[in-house]
Amino acid sequence: MPSLPFFLRCLSYLLLAGAACAAPVLQNPTGHPHQNLDGRWQYLIDPYETGYYDYRRKPMDAKGFFEDRKQKDKGELIEYSFDHASTLKVPGDWNSQAENLQYYEGTVWLRRSFTAAPQAGKRYVLYFGAVNYEAHVYLNGRKLGSHQGGFTPFQFDATGLLRAGENSLVVKADNTRHADAIPTVNTDWWNYGGITRDVLLVELPATHISDYKVQLAKGDRNHFEGYVQLAGTELEQKVRLAIPEAGIDTEVRTDPQGRAAVRLPAPKLQLWQPGAPKLYQVTLSTAQDRVEDRIGFRTIETRGKDILLNGKPIFLRGISLHEENPLIAGRLRGESDMRMMLQWARELNANYVRLAHYPHSETMLRLADEMGILVWAEVPVYWTIAWNNPATFALAEEQLATMIGRDQNRAAAIIWSIGNETPVSPERNAFMGKLAGAVRAQDNSRLVAAALEVHRRGNDIVMEDPLADKLDLVSFNEYAGWYWSDPVDMLNYRFTITANKPVVITEFGGDALAGFHADAQTRWSEEYQDLLYKNQLRMLGEIPGLRGMTPWILVDFRSPKRLHPVFQDGWNRKGLISESGKKKQAFHTLKAFYDTMEIRYK
Ligand code: GCB
């Protein structure tokens, strides 16, 4: 039985966004028995949505491509066939898998046949890590539901429709951009479409552990705090919580809603931190169900201008990342792609990454946990959102809540970001203010932030954004030396920051085409980017509260907005590493700075 806040959020999502709300997603889906449905899926490109609308443009409920029909006799007319179609790899965006799909925005139908052996008394859930942007899901010719939002998981109960033997799973994926959506039509990244993350068929007992949180209480290394949530028919039960290595073996009792609060004394733990990312085996079990996780324990808080990890000041030596493998080029397709990205960040001597500008894969967060890299996680409330539209707000809130819920057991995740470079206005302030409140209500154990903007008054760089009062960090993007001023003149500017909070710069940078060498006044040269970094680091070094940064960006990434045929060619070149993996000069400059900061904060 899902919690009351979920129902309220779901209701507004249903009423406002017009999409059926998926069930709340399972915590740690791979922690339950499951069948992985990744692999090769047959696909049909359907720009006119012929498989969905009839010739009067009415949605077809009774027939359509979701039926996955096969011709039964030689006279029968069926104008599609999955059986004869080519395949796409799932997980994977379609743009990087077929030349005619590189710029495609619209509907693609994907079909996967699989065999199952459902057991009586069990429940079966179809779990999608992410489909960009809108997904309609059908099993054996019947609709399970739909979902909007390209970067968050969703699931449907498939128990009644799952067959013993052969099953047909059909997904209508549509990556059309919409002005009222989250994100909106204008972004500086590639609009990769498709089933970009894992698809799982999860087997659950009739009553199962659907959600849990086991973390240290805010700023309190002596207590575990969290909850357990059951779903199903027998909601009042004993749940056993064991953390053997910490000597914890205890029981909580769920209430009639299936929920039990967890609060218990923590022994002296080996706390999770970069360099020593200790993870404990955590087991939750009931008479019917059992879930295992690996969880790290740490505290994160601010005190004045300091960020305290486990009570000690830390400097966030970070870098921004998109969820894109430049070598493909396409979305990261699995753990090895993700490891490559985080390994590059490590080579920079980073202890922190900004996963911009949308929730990245759960696997990425788990890898960050394992590798000891702190994470800033974000929702795609990016640039100019439809601030006045309640449906847009419902979407933003749903994505934020789903991201936090999914990653709330990850020690690596220390900052929830509610958006990026959103322009100040009364409507936007109200929208973003409500999001900040929603984060605190859901998870008060981490920091709340957003990437804000700065302005110039004479030679002073100032931040005048009323939203800042609701956030834990002074965090902003700042493009001195690239979008204004130049790498030498920028030193004539200084930051005037009055808030007594840690300053974490979310972006700065400039483009360089790897291998293009010239003097430091020449745009696009590695020398220009390098001087820009050197002088940025001097400038930022003057800010008394500077406690971290995530320059833009680790690797060059694809963007349809970057059209210079010689220097960009569809790529944003602000990477410190090129699309072929070559490190630019500025990479080494930033690394040298991070080496110094590491020693200073030892
Ligand atoms: C920004 C955005 C980022 C862009 C970057 C750029 O401020 O937050 O998404 O890619 O600037 O390169 O202009």
Count of beta strands: 37
- Give the percentage of residues in beta strands: 25-35%
Helix content: 10-25%
Bound molecules: (2S,3S,4S,5R)-3,4,5-trihydroxy-6-oxo-oxane-2-carboxylic acid
Q: What is the rounded distance between the termini? A: 47 Å
Mass-distribution shape? globular
What structural category do the secondary elements indicate? alpha+beta
Features:
602 residues; alpha+beta; eight-stranded parallel β-barrel; six-stranded antiparallel beta sheet; 7 helices; 17% helix; 32% strand; globular; binds (2S,3S,4S,5R)-3,4,5-trihydroxy-6-oxo-oxane-2-carboxylic acid
Q: What report would you give on this structure?
A:
There is one protein chain. It is built from seven helices and 37 strands. The protein is α+β, with helices and mostly antiparallel strands and 602 residues long. The strands form ten sheets. An eight-stranded parallel β-barrel has the order 23-26-27-28-29-32-34-35, surrounded by five helices. α4 links the parallel β27 (374-378) and β28. α1 (4-17) packs antiparallel against α4 (390-407), α4 (390-407) packs parallel to α5 and α6 packs parallel to α7 (585-600). (2S,3S,4S,5R)-3,4,5-trihydroxy-6-oxo-oxane-2-carboxylic acid is lined by residues 188, 357, 420-421, 477, 507, 552, 572, 574.
